[in-house]
Design brief:
The protein is mainly alpha-helical and 194 residues long. It has 9 helices and no strands. It is 72% helix and 0% strand.
Length: 194
Amino acid sequence: MPKIVDHDARRAELAEAMWRVVYRDGVGAATVRSIAAEAGWSPSALRHYFATQTELLVFAMDHVMAKATERFTAEHRTGTARDVVQGMLEELLPLDRQRAREAEVWLLLAARTQVDPAARERMTQADDGVRRAAELAVAQLTGDRPVDDAAVARLHALLDGLTLHALLHPDRLPPHRIRGLLAAHLDQLAAGST
């Protein structure tokens, strides 16, 4: 009798192995070989699920998007609308090891968008999610004023820029500085001066 394989369970097992490697050693160490070893699989078995490195990164980005959405939409936030917006947007920034590793996946996938349609599609989805977060933030902070597309674009660019600079220069942009820069921008936005 042939063995029944639960492919969703196997992919979930691979996801856990991949993220253990990413969190421990960084996204650059997440190769087919290292993930296969972490999962106790052969590299050829892993290639059945991910034929290319980009497929692996797309899979990782799906995980990043799901986790970021889960954190962003958490119901436990309290305080003023301004405080809630800050807390929500901080979930998208590399302020701890987990979010920094997730941002590394974003950056590696972004580097592949010029040559790989799958990477480009997934990055478009990720960018759309950040834009929606920026739109929500601007709407919350500006109240009954119409949502200003330029303000949304500036906030989106700030989030992307803070992420990129935090990854490239963590010594110059530690978490407290990222929070401070975001706070200053949100204060200006709420005051109507951006």
